[in-house]
Amino acid sequence: LLPLLLLLLPAAHGGVQHVGYKPFLTKTPVLEGLTTGSTFVLEQPRCVFDKYSNADIWLVVALENTADTFNNSVAPGTAESAFQNFPHSVPAYMTLNATLANYPCPKPAGDITVLRVGSETSCIRDDARPTCNGPLPGPGPYQVKFLALNGSEPVAETGWSLPIMLRTAKSPNSISTTDGGHSAGMIALTSILSILFAILLAGLVAMLVFWGSDSCGGSSTFSKPEAVTVRRYNTHHVYDQPAARL
């Protein structure tokens, strides 16, 4: 009887309509932080659930390997769909509750049409906020879909998105050691030569300064002229007479 009950379960809920739409990362405007280490940005599901004017539209976030195990009958705001229990004890969580008023069709001019998944940090460990749009716990890959509920009954859903990977920090071993075609050895050699040149230049300047100060502070010594004795002769007397000082 179990297979029969599984077949009758959708009928008991009135069936879930599959709309021809899959969530995707926004393309316009071009965003620098389209994916980060804990968030990603989706395009809003405009003109997708127009037939369900009274429905609440939820975003379901799952890991790629647990998306198929999510049960649409799980109610939002419960432990079975709480962000705080993902991914340890629940395969997916439900967040970003909205109505058609939040997704008007057609889009008014100037409207922002994106959703950032993972942008709330204040409710990460707040069990009273099970629908928290908290930072994603790992790099993924993740898959998401939109689910429309009429009260507690699922009435329509989109397909699952393509897998979404978040950014991860690079390992130091993966960082390139080249810069503009120059190897790390060439960069190191250039640095060493630059330092040696600076030392040589400093030594040359110091030598020039020393030589300049030495030449300016030196003095010349002159000898005092000595008296020269000139001996004069005449026919009668020979006598000595001091010569004039030069």
TrEMBL record:
InterPro entries: Uroplakin-3
Cellular component per GO, a single term: membrane
Key words, A-Z: Membrane, Transmembrane, Transmembrane helix
Keyword check for Membrane: yes
Taxonomy, superkingdom: Eukaryota
TM helices/strands, residue ranges: 186-211
Protein name in the entry: UPK3B protein
Taxonomic lineage: Eukaryota, Metazoa, Chordata, Craniata, Vertebrata
